[in-house]
Specification:
Helix content is 30%, strand content 26%. The protein is α+β, with helices and mostly antiparallel strands. The two termini are 27 Å apart. Its main location: mitochondrion.
């Protein structure tokens, strides 16, 4: 108990430093033995930074690593050139990227919601913890790569429950082909429309047509779409079996067009497993010679792992408990494993209500800020945080929020007294960080 409170106090002191709105421009934060300047965008917390370098997807015997290897093996066996795998794998790329990499290179508009401080973990205005592995796409294309997988941890501010965690793992991929590769058996066809080839320097690509980009021929787009969907269906069948039901849903992503999401019918419901599409030609042009067409896809490892192994809580991915890890150690990567709970520990639920300061309203207060604070103080014993109630006083017009915080340890029973102490620390942190008044 004493050690827990020491960690909480220490964590909160750093938390205040990271979130201080009065931080001077010379302030810095140290990440992976490098110092980074901070500014009014800085919102990374010590708790989030503690997940860096864990590399669960590379940890032998970890369920994330088992599924990662199954995906890699599928692409290695499905695509070969001269007896060697066509796809190269990048699974240890630095998690700190520039806003140019994460947004600009991918044609994400400046006013897009995904750029908001409420959605991302910023080191400063120019740098952030990558929000998707696609952030490395352009740099690898510029390096001259045609077919590659990008695998690693990504960071997004989100709600707190059994299926959401601020850190998760993604597999992203790009496969590009030149005319002679794509139309190997269809000589005379072209990737690009004639009017694009005639004035490619001044041509502005359009995505007004839902079936294709204006620069691409319909034949090239449809052939790539067919390849993409067949390859991804093959992957899903390798993971979930040949009889898995699937469907394609039209989608929108700033960096692909057309775009689709794939859903599978799993355990009596449709579950989204990946997003994909034809890479916007502007991205390829900015990365190098414009003589190819490409498809790309991205999937979350945790979602697949939880479905395949029947793991009920995403926090278990970070467990160091031998009762969890030994269920996956020394297993064949294709083994049919069903997670067996070691034991079930009870929940402790405490509500926290507070009046907002005058400068904030129930519409402008960012719940993700509060979620980060709760996680930073409470750590991994926070199972869920839900906005329970909004209230406006009829006379004073003061505004209030009430959050329900569910505490549960994955490896032992929490006492109510222990939870109450942590809850008090969260109350203090909320008062100091947001200027609220506890009700």
């Amino acid at each position: 108990m004493t050690n827990l409170l020491i960690r909480t106090s220490y964590s909160f002191n750093i938390f205040k430093h990271c979130y201080s709105t009065a931080a001077k421009s010379v302030a810095s934060i140290r990440i992976n033995n490098e110092d980074y300047g901070t500014d009014d965008y800085t919102n990374v917390t010590p708790k989030i930074l503690s997940y860096l370098n864990r590399n669960l997807h590379l940890q032998k015997g970890h369920p994330l690593s088992l599924v990662r290897q199954r995906i890699v093996n599928y692409f290695y066996s499905s695509f070969t050139h001269g007896g060697n795998p066509s796809f190269s794998v990048y699974d240890n790329l630095k998690p700190i990227v520039s806003t140019k990499q994460n947004f600009d290179d991918l044609l994400i508009p400046e006013d897009h919601v995904s750029r908001a401080k409420s959605d991302c973990y910023y080191v400063n205005k120019s740098l952030l913890l990558r929000a998707h592995m696609t952030a490395h796409q352009s740099e690898l294309l510029r390096a001259g790569l045609d077919n590659f997988l990008m695998i690693g941890d990504v960071y997004r501010r989100d709600e707190i429950d059994s299926t959401h965690f601020p850190v998760f793992h993604q597999v992203d991929a790009v496969r590009s082909q030149r005319k002679e590769q794509l139309f190997e058996n269809h000589q005379g066809l072209e990737i690009f429309e004639k009017h694009f080839l005639d004035q490619s320097q001044s041509f502005k690509n359009s995505i007004n047509d839902p079936t294709k980009q204006s620069c691409h021929t319909l034949e090239a787009t449809k052939l790539m779409e067919n390849q993409l969907k067949n390859h991804l269906l093959g992957l899903v069948k390798v993971l979930f079996g040949d009889n898995i039901k699937h469907r394609w849903v039209d989608a929108y992503f700033p960096f692909t067009h057309p775009s689709w999401e794939m859903e599978i019918f799993y355990e009596d419901k449709w579950m989204e497993v990946l997003g994909c599409g034809i890479v916007r030609n502007e991205i390829l042009m900015n990365a190098g010679p414009n003589n190819s067409i490409a498809y790309a896809f991205g999937l979350g490892l945790e979602r697949l792992v939880m479905a395949l192994y029947k793991i009920p809580d995403i926090r278990l991915m970070w467990s160091t408990d031998s009762g969890f890890l030994t269920q996956f150690e020394n297993k064949d990567i294709n083994a049919d494993i069903t997670y067996k709970p070691v034991s079930s520990y009870p929940q402790c639920v405490n509500d926290l209500s507070f009046w907002l300061p005058n400068e904030l309203t129930i519409d402008t207060f960012m719940s993700n800020d509060f979620y980060d604070l709760v996680r930073d103080v409470g750590g991994d014993i926070i199972e869920q945080v839900k906005l329970k109630d909004k209230f406006v006083h009829p006379k004073t017009k003061k505004q209030s929020l009430c959050y329900s915080i569910v505490y549960r340890h994955l490896e032992r029973t929490l006492t109510q007294a222990e939870v109450n102490q942590i809850h008090k620390e969260i109350e203090k942190a909320a008062v100091q960080s947001f200027g609220v008044v506890i009700r």
